[in-house]
Target: Methylglutaconyl-CoA hydratase
Amino acid sequence: MTNPIADPIVEVPDTDAMTPLVHLDSTPEGAVTVWINRPARKNAFDAATIAALHQAFETLHGAEGVRIVFLRGVGGAFSAGADLEWMKAAADWSEDDNRDDALGLAHMLKALHDIPALTVALVEGPAFGGGAGLVAACDHALATADAKFAFSEVKLGLTPATISPYVIAALGPRTAKLLFATGRVFDADQAWSYGLVDEVFDDAAGLVAAQDALVEEVALCAPGAIGDAKALVNDFVGQKIDRGLLDETARRIARRRVSDEGQEGVRAFLERRKPGWTI
Ligand SMILES: CC(C)(COP(=O)([O-])OP(=O)([O-])OC[C@H]1O[C@@H](n2cnc3c(N)ncnc32)[C@H](O)[C@@H]1OP(=O)([O-])[O-])[C@@H](O)C(=O)NCCC(=O)NCCSC(=O)C[C@@](C)(O)CC(=O)[O-]
Model:
């Protein structure tokens, strides 16, 4: 597979420009940052933003050498969830047309969930509704102390439907029910206690330092092995430990043992040298 991100270094805008809606920014260590760029709408996503995010996430499925993917909002807000102007327009459509439209969001979230690299949300400011859903759909989340969260859908007469599988997995059913039913706003420390956020930092500088440390840490690891390790969790969560699962786990380590990465990593350890990953 070749890296489909031909020219991934994109300057991150400091303006309120509404296009392009999503930027990919990458480093030689295999770290990619996906920026949601609708700061004038607090990075709320409409159909076009969802399509752009979906495309970015799909691109990362086939991108060789990508070890870690960060998701961040331009302008100090993570995301205010579904664009309510877009939702309002959808009121004129039939229920079936609304379902087809909502499937776009459901598929975008699944594409994020399925990225082989470790995905990390970097949350500053509001992450409301579907924005908090994006945080839950990532594997890991870091936040600044000013971050605030809400599953505010019920206050709008809606439900957090397409995001719910990821939120329930991250928070567990009891907390998810409470937060879904009240729509209450909660802060970064509360998000940490609920398991939606893994670490809280005083400010954006602390967030970026933690981001850099993670990039350095995963740069030592084989990118293909990271993808396979993450797939173990996605594929085996909740599975019964039966004969079929034992066979599957043995098949997965066998595949790694015969891989170039597996052979190079073990050889390098025994030869007391750093492994030379090809990417
Ligand atoms: C985010 C804060 C706290 C920031 O609060 P703030 O910092 O005080 O900023 P603000 O409220 O002044 O917002 C700045 C601008 O962004 C706009 N804006 C802001 N949010 C949206 C939005 N979602 N859609 C469209 N526009 C939005 C807002 O209208 C305003 O526009 P301006 O007046 O400058 O022209 C506040 O704006 C707010 O409460 N926004 C609504 C957040 C919300 O309830 N989101 C849930 C959306 S429903 C959803 O996500 C459904 C989904 C996806 O979960 C369904 C499913 O799971 O299937």
User: Anything to note?
Assistant: The chain has two domains: 22-219, 223-270. The pocket of 3-hydroxy-3-methylglutaryl-coenzyme A is lined by residues 41-42, 44, 80-85, 102, 105, 126, 128-130, 133, 152-153, 156, 158, 160-163 (CB under 6 Å). The longest helix spans residues 95-113. The chain is about 45% helix and 15% strand.
